[in-house]
Amino acid sequence: MNIVVSPSRKIIGRLAQGEDLLAALENCAREHGITLAEVQAIGAVSQARVGYYHQQERKYYFLDLNQPLEIVSLLGNISLKDGKPLVHAHLSLADHEGRAFGGHLAEGTLVFACEFTIQEYQSAAPLVRRMDEPTGLFLWPYE
Question: CA dihedral defined by 46, 42, 28, 48, rounded to 10 degrees?
Fold first, then answer.
């Protein structure tokens, strides 16, 4: 499936120290009425929780990183699930020795300092996540 979108507003900001990164981005989307966007961020976290989806088991496993880390990259999108904006983002992190960690951004990732950009898009119809039976994930429709 391909849909045609047009860029709309761009929102940039900074998240407060101690906020949950995922929840804060979703709150921002709700506050601004954003239902379709791409999101990026840089900064640092005081601790992180990232997920890995085991394709055969159709289950997420999580890695808890209880240490200060740099956000090397956060890239994701915002669309609707259950009528609310959902942030789906992947996160790359680095420790003080440059070792990298990454995965699906999960609740429990606490902001030390974070600057973000949300590029909103307009489309003729909303993009709503649905259960995709072959993968077991809530994804954008394929057809």
Answer: -30
10 Å Cβ neighbour count for 91?
Answer: 26
Give the contacts of 13 (CB within 8 A, at least 6 positions apart).
28, 115, 116
Q: What single-letter DSSP state applies at residue 36?
A: S
Give the separation between CA 92 and CA 42, rounded to whole angstroms: 10
* pTM to 2 decimal places: 0.94
Q: Which residue type, as a one-letter code, is found at position 61?
A: Y
Q: Phi and psi at residue 24, in whole multiples of 5°?
A: -65, -40
pLDDT tens, position by position, 122-134: 988 888 999 999 9
* Beta bridge pairs of residue 120: 37
Here the tokens at position 121 are: 């898009």
User: CA-CA distance, 116 to 39, in Å (whole number)?
Assistant: 7
User: Are the C-beta atoms of 61 and 52 separated by less than 8 Å?
Assistant: yes
Return the SS3 of 23: helix
Contact 114, 44 (CB under 8 A): yes
Q: Are 51 and 57 in contact (CB under 8 A)?
A: no
Tell me: the pLDDT tens digits for 71-84?
A: 999 999 999 999 99
